[in-house]
Amino acid sequence: MNKKINFSSEKYSMSGPLIDQSDIKEINKMMHIGWYGKKKYFYVEKFEKIFAAYHKRKYAIMTSNCTAAIHVTLKSLNIKKGDEIILPEITWISTASPIKQLNAKPIFCDVDPKHWCIDYKKVEKLITKKTKAIIAVNVYGNMPNMHKLKIICKKNNISLLEDAAEALGSVQNNIKAGKFGHASFFSFHRTKTITTGEGGMILTDDKKLYNKCKFYRDNGRNLKESYWCDDSFIKFMPSNIQGCLGYSQFKKIKKILTKKKRILNLYYKHLKDLKLIQLNINDFGKKFVNGAWNVAIVWDESYNISYKYVMKKLNEKGLPTRPFFFPLSSMNTFQKNNLKKQNKIAYSISKRGLCLPSGLIITENEIKYYCSILKQILKRK
After folding, report:
1. Helices in the chain by DSSP H: which ranges?
2. What is the 8-class DSSP label of residue 318?
3. Mean of the pLDDT values across residues 149-154?
4. How many CB atoms lie within 10 A of CB 323?
5. What pLDDT, on the 0 to 100 scale, is given for residue 13?
6. How far does CA 115 lie from the centroid of its chain?
């Protein structure tokens, strides 16, 4: 029986992986065989193969992190100065940073209040002759209407890219997150559903794009003449250690996702009597299944309470939390694009939302106690 190893010193882990002896055993094996010749990226390739098969994609390219996956893909799509990429206002900065690094322009779109993801109804009016792609981000495992976005992209002859960093295991209309985009991206950061410490993955069915991504992932190295570079780019190769841990972790994906979904369902159970709140969308196997990476809560404006107040009161009880994503256009690096008046929903949600402890080691009793304190705070105010 595999013994679980608890690397967290927190009683309530905000996030974190499920590491057991099977991972240690696989890493130990890699340490003895995974350095030279054909074995130097042996585990990277094994991980890529099973990850692509799970998502029914033809090709997978592992990268050093998810930001790198987005950067490599945009470079491979020849995104350059003057080009525009539409993305949601609510997401982590990694979705936008590569756009800026390539001297292109991020165009921030408001989100849908129901699922916190990009609002397809507001996307089309942002498309110009300079628009090259839309990046749909699956926020906290939620997903936007991918079918509508695909229609919009096809109509305007632009690429649909899918940032599924937070959506491993999410399913929309029986299609897994990561299957929708011309290219899709995943994260294996230490906080994600499965981890490689740091790591990312690109999925695509486009062979030409696949070969370009492999080329730019490795400094622009000629794939046939190994010490010759046809271009100059940042190296985003993963290590065999990352590939090995990812391969070992992914073999337990069914077990891990079952635990993640149970955590989300327990929050539903213990917060059910709290009115006018939203948790991550989950239709429990109907039109949508949430991979439940990190549980988030958004309360109605009628509460008239800020996330800072709730965080303060939780912290006074020794209970951790973290803010909802902040609107990207509010950050210093993008402030000249501040869109507070245009993207009202994103700016509103970010002030009345929090992420809740969702680490795989959390117990039902801990969730029950946490929810009791959260309800006291919200009701008292």
Report:
1. 21-33, 42-54, 66-76, 97-101, 120-123, 146-156, 207-217, 240-250, 253-270, 307-316, 344-349, 364-380
2. T
3. 98
4. 13
5. 79
6. 15
SS3 63: strand
Q: What is d(CA 325, CA 137) in angstroms, rounded to the nearest whole number?
A: 12
Q: What is the pLDDT of residues 59-113, one digit of tens each?
A: 999 999 999 999 999 999 999 999 999 999 999 999 999 999 999 999 999 999 9
CATH code, residues 253-380: 3.90.1150.10
- For the whole model, what pTM was predicted? 0.93
Domain 21-250, CATH number (from 2.60.40.10, 3.40.640.10, 3.60.40.10, 2.40.10.340): 3.40.640.10
What region does 192 belong to: left with phi over 0, alpha with psi -120 to 50, or beta? beta
The pLDDT of residue 19 is above 80: yes
* Coil, strand or helix at 146: helix
Tell me phi and psi for residue 63, to 5 degrees.
-130, 175
Please report the pLDDT score of residue 8 as a whole number: 40
Strand order in the sheet with 322-323: 277-279, 296-299, 353-355, 322-323
Q: Are 202 and 64 in contact (CB under 8 A)?
A: no
- Domain edges within the chain: 21-250, 253-380
β 159-163/171-172 pair status: unpaired
Q: In what order do the strands lie in the sheet with 288-289?
A: 175-176, 171-172, 288-289
